[in-house]
Amino acid sequence: MRKAERLNEIVHYLRRMHQAVTAQTLALVFEVSQRTIYRDIQDLIDTGVPILGEAGVGYLIDKKYHLPPVMFDADELEAIALGIGMVGNWTDKHFAKKAQSAYRKIQATLPDTLINELHQISTFSAPSHYKIPWEVSFSEVRECIRRKQLVKFTYLDLNEQLTVRIIRPLALISFSPVWLLAGWCELRKDFRNFRLDRIAKFEKLERRFTHEKDKSLTTYLKRVNEQEETRFKGNDCKELDSN
Amino acid sequence: MRKAERLNEIVHYLRRMHQAVTAQTLALVFEVSQRTIYRDIQDLIDTGVPILGEAGVGYLIDKKYHLPPVMFDADELEAIALGIGMVGNWTDKHFAKKAQSAYRKIQATLPDTLINELHQISTFSAPSHYKIPWEVSFSEVRECIRRKQLVKFTYLDLNEQLTVRIIRPLALISFSPVWLLAGWCELRKDFRNFRLDRIAKFEKLERRFTHEKDKSLTTYLKRVNEQEETRFKGNDCKELDSN
DNA sequence: TTGACTACTGACAGCTAATGTCAGTAGTGT
DNA sequence: ACACTACTGACATTAGCTGTCAGTAGTCAA
Q1: CB < 8 Å to A78, chain B
Q2: Which of A96, A149, B147, B239 would give a disulfide with A88, using CB separation of 3.0 to 4.6 Å?
Q3: A57 HSE (CA, 13 A, CB side)
């Protein structure tokens, strides 16, 4: 069953990438050897999937390729419902509402057989008492990220030092009881994380910033991944705090 | 390669036929045993293809069940993605996989305009260092809930007392760093919560239980809600532990 | 032109997962 | 009651999937 699944996934993967994808990338994503990817691609082409391979470039799929009808299974529904619930418990009202409306849209398309499954869902998320409250508006921060708008705030670091920061907001990261705002700090000229619950006097600045590769989210995530790989586990949350 | 191809062909075959097709027919057409057909159909259903099987009749595919002809907006997509991420970080591998595959199915139906939004998602969930590990298999517990199968285990309560419990498992509840198994305790003749990380020697019993209203999840949830309303906030997790 | 990067092929050993057989349970329609 | 069907479990066999290694050839940029 592994192969059949993978073939499907490869098609989906290629469809949602807009650029060429190399066999090496696919091999990493699907955790198989490149040789296997080459065989898979060949099999897909043999069965009529319009994949184009070019040496030195990678693979491209013709978007027009038509996919078979698909539905969620019971487990997938349960996973989605749980995810929606967690979002509701860990973000703000606005975001929770969006999660709910997405969920309703999904429900609306379900056939009767699956609606019954919904009533049997037995995995929930409860609002946690461990939740650490924050002052800044979650949705406001998200808006600044979207609009590439510089933000300014005072930050109380774990050494209880107060500093004023101006940063390019890049992402909000849920780190269990706390939320982190990841950004490029204009003061330190480097990436930094800030705990939402330690941010005060949050304000949007008029100034927007433009995409710069070495100050982008992609670069940041890449760096974090590299760090993860080269250190042992068992650290606590403190290390993620900024200074 | 035979199987992957056959799975595709079966879908197309069922779509062409407008009446029910028996497993025997499929077995003849594809020159495999009926047993293999049954397995294939199961695999297809597992991946979300809406095939309906009826004893005495045969198989039908429902063409209506194309996935959400639904338009999500950018926020909804972000909320779903975040939820899926949280599920991945807080449950087990099996469940996380299901969440992922659901997400991919949603992605597969998105029009190009929305696919661009996916690349701009900036709200994530990081695997938490606060996560408290548990011994029992998350998926195994879920299976017992589904199958209404009694379970037995030893439980270490917060007073460090060890007891052996036999319960009707009703639901898994995420309570931030810990997961709780909610159930009807056959020993105490009442509803109880058990922290997954304090459960040991988990075993499924042969005996199944039948639905009894006053021992059901619905009743339990109703009771919890009533309790919530009549007490103040600020309690910590201890109260949810059982004894 | 060179060098880096890529697609692609063949061979082979090891092993995973697909398959058929058999035997049984349970639902459907006549 | 009966024929017909979907569906499940166990088990031995083997087909085919996989990784590794080694090599050819196309693409692109400097």
Answers
A1: 98
A2: A96
A3: 8
Tokens 């969440």 — which residue? B99
Contacts of A125 (CB under 8 A, 6+ apart): A82, A85, A86, A88, A89, B173, B174
Interface touch A98/B78, C-beta < 8 Å: yes
Pairing of strands B178-185, B162-175: antiparallel
Contacts of B122 (CB under 8 A, 6+ apart): A142, A145, A146, A170, A171, A172, A217, B78
Can you tell me the ipTM of this complex?
0.74
Nucleic strand D near CB of residue B58 (< 7 Å): yes
A139, burial (CB in 10 Å: exposed 0-12, middle 13-18, buried 19+): middle
Q: Read off the pLDDT of residues A62-77 as tens digits, 9 standing for 90 and up.
A: 877 777 777 787 788 8
Task: Say if the Cβ atoms of A70 and B67 lie within 8 Å.
Answer: yes
Q: What is the pLDDT of residues A134-160, one digit of tens each?
A: 888 888 898 899 889 999 999 998 899
C-alpha to C-alpha distance for A24 and A31, rounded to whole angstroms: 10
Contact between residue A107 and residue A114 where contact means Cβ atoms under 8 Å apart: no
Angle between helices A93-108 and B74-90 (to 10 degrees): 90
Q: A4-16, pLDDT tens digit by residue?
A: 889 988 888 888 8
Count the Cβ atoms, other than its own, within 10 Å of residue B95. 22
Are B108 and A84 inside 8 Å of each other by CB? no
HEC letters along A196-227? HHHEEEEEEEEEECCCCHHHCHHHHHHHHHHH
B219's enclosing H/E stretch is helix B217-229
- Answer whether A71's CB lies under 8 Å from B65's CB: yes
Q: Cα B99 from chain centroid? A: 9
